[in-house]
Hints:
The chain has six helices and eleven strands. Helix content is 26%, strand content 22%. Helix 4 (66-73) runs antiparallel to helix 5 (77-91). Strand 9 (217-218) and strand 10 form a beta hairpin. The longest helix has 15 residues, at 77-91.
Amino acid sequence: MPCEANTFRRILDDWYPTDVDTGAAHMLRLKAVAPASDLGNWLLNDHEDNLLIRGWGIANEPVYNQHATAYLWRDDPKAVIRTFYSYMASAFSQSALEPVEHRSTHGQYFGPPSTDGAWFELYRNMLILERDDDSLLLAGFTPRAWLAPGKTISVKRAPSRFGAISMTVQNKGGRQLSADVELEGRAKPSSLLVRFRHPAGSRMTSVTVNGRDWTDFDPAKEWVRLPAPAEQSYAIVVSY
């Protein structure tokens, strides 16, 4: 372990190796430290308050988004979305619209695939996330504006641990959101979770799955749960 997470004081005079390449926040990404623990909270607060505010970390080299992954593990959509857009504001070229090393602090360096890969990994996990309990979470971290009236979120045959995944989540107006999900793989998740982040934050009141009334949903988590999904196709309608 390159630095002691419990030691007072951040080494700002030698910040790069201890905070970026192998910093303690990586321990959250790797789940060596529980992301939702007290220590996880302190590491994330320190990471954002003392590192990012100086234009270091992800703002300097956009491959280092370990805090974003920690927020995924904590199931914190607001923090994930904030990081997603902050990522693009601080680290993307405003001409080529791609992640760039040292956009604001040093000479810009286009082209390293690690920066593109880190952003696309976050983007992908916002839409499709395999969880530790072998469940599959779809649309788990999408901005509410993506499901404004008339809007659609569409994914076509995205690779996953459970084979190709396709989904269309949309707001057709009125007081309903819907999702059509295709699970093409032979391996199935222990449960399928589909999150519906209503544009106004409204609370779900009823659900149907493949035309049948469904009671396994969580208004606080904003998701519908399908345990041991055996079908290839699911049509989910959520009413508010």
